[in-house]
Amino acid sequence: MTTLGQPIKYHLHRGQRFSRLTVIGRVRSDGKTRKVRVRCVCGVVRDVLVWNLVHGNTRSCGCWQKARASSAAKTHGQSRTRLYNTWKNMRYRCENPVRKDWHRYGGRGIRVCKAWQRFENFYQWALTSGYKLHLTLDRVKNGRGYWPSNCRWATYSEQRRNQRRYRLRHSC
Do 159 and 109 share a domain, yes or no? Predict the structure, then answer.
């Protein structure tokens, strides 16, 4: 309202754009508030208050906020990949004493290097070191930990030949 008590009239036109919303028509007024029908860039059609639209309080149908919240919560987007599970299992074997096989890894002093505590660092190393879906993470020297200079990508048969028990049996 203006200082004289008269409502401010906004003349909105079909096709007029406000942020992610485009005016596509008017909505019958209830006498107290004015609304317009808008289409969001994502395709959703909504009725919104003219005041909120003109003053920037309504900028989308809600899809923009959902997208922002989703990207803010997402760190790398790899949590459902085989490579992420490889990284997670590597860390659990070395850091979680509750695991059945912990005595073979963390219990023997096998550790994960500080840089690989973050998946993004491990991911970059994997891509530059020849990671392929059919390969597994292998430590070159089994008595040492997981760090870039001691790890490689190997086939299952190559990894089996590098196991402690295999090397002990066939060392003669």
Answer: yes
Structure tokens at 114: 């500080």
Structural element, H or E, at residue 40? strand 35-40
What is the domain extent for residue 102?
82-169
Q: How many CA atoms lie within 13 A of 121 on its CB side?
A: 10
Are 30 and 97 contained in the same domain? no
Structural domain total, the chain: 2
Q: Tens of pLDDT along 7-31?
A: 566 788 899 999 999 999 989 877 7
Round to whole Å and give the CA distance between 48 and 45: 10
Domain match, 86 and 65 both: no
Q: Residue 144's closest CA among 87, 105, 86?
A: 105
Instruction: Give residue-wise pLDDT tens across range 123-153.
Output: 999 999 999 999 999 999 989 999 999 999 9
Q: Are 172 and 149 in contact (CB under 8 A)?
A: no
For 68-121, write each residue's pLDDT tens digit. 776 666 677 788 899 999 999 999 999 999 999 999 999 999 999 999 999 999
9 within domain boundaries: no
